Amino acid sequence: xxxLALIALVALTFSIVATPLMRRAALRTGVVAMPRTxxxxxxxxxxxxxxxxxxxxxxxxxxxxxxxxxxxxxxxLLGATLISLFGLADDRWGLAAPAKLxxxxxxxVVLLLGGTQVQLFSQPWLNWGLTxxxxxxxxNALNFLDxxxxxxxxxxxxxxxxxxxxxxxxxxxxxxVGAMAAALIGACAGFxxxxxxxxxxxxxxxxxxxxxxxxxxxxxKLRFPSNIxxxxxxxxxxxxxxxIFDTSLVVxxxxxxxxxxxxxxxxxxxxxxxxxxxxTRREAVLTCYLLAGACGMVGVYLTQARPIEAxxxxxxxxxxxxxxxxxxxxxxxxxxxxxx
Length: 340
Description:
Elements: H1 2-29, E1 32-33, E2 45-46, H2 49-64, H3 70-92, H4 97-113, H5 124-145, H6 151-169, H7 175-195, H8 204-221, H9 229-232, H10 234-239, H11 241-256, H12 270-276, H13 281-302, H14 307-331
Antiparallel strand pairs: 1-2
Helix pairs in contact: 1-2, 1-7, 2-3, 2-7, 2-8, 3-4, 3-8, 4-5, 5-8, 5-11, 6-7, 6-8, 6-13, 7-8, 11-14, 12-13, 13-14
């Protein structure tokens, strides 16, 4: 536990120091988010906060991480670096959706080559396909979630906290997962000092894609020897249920309106709709934090649940999610409250 605390502290310190430096670098190089009709900010905001998160995470792990897991750690860091570079290119010059998707898939392949993959099926190709789908899906979910000050970084911190707890709860202790989760908590917490409303810097795709990739990798690396895979596959899904719900809400809503859900931006995310229904931006973000925490607690419960109990609880969570999408689509379609 001392090692994990040290990793988190180093990442926190490095992030607090590096974020203002990245802000200055973004202003000098022109890597800024200009206000658009879909955006909530009204003035240009620097975009290199994700580079500070990435740097703090990597430095903390390289300095104090366990060298025993170096092969797997190198593969994860290579994939994270690759996807962060694609995010940086998108922040600076803008990339087409197919190019970003190709970068995410390539990072997923790097993860597979390093030995990190889903192990649910007897057929290897099914595990490979599910691994790539999970990595791309969660990476995009965190990217989608980065739509309001402090939202993506805060939800990532909460999810990483639950992954750290789960790694500590299950014997034998999962050192690599715990170290990565601790580094992510510290890096995100330091960044949030500057990103909470009103934000002075954004993480950009450099940060959101990185966070999604690392959380996807952590979810795959977690093992639950005290329960069976028939149950435990649902645990990381519950921990990351908030970004999954947000992405599902956006995709369903945009498909209903006949637009491409991945290339047509809009103010139709969960946070936008909560704000449109009367919450302040900070209240909307805090509500998302509470929902993310509640879903994480469900995930912790499932690690000790019997199959019938687990599927009943997870089924109730899925029904609640579907009902939430239906309700939000009725009362606040497209992020605009219904007048009916």
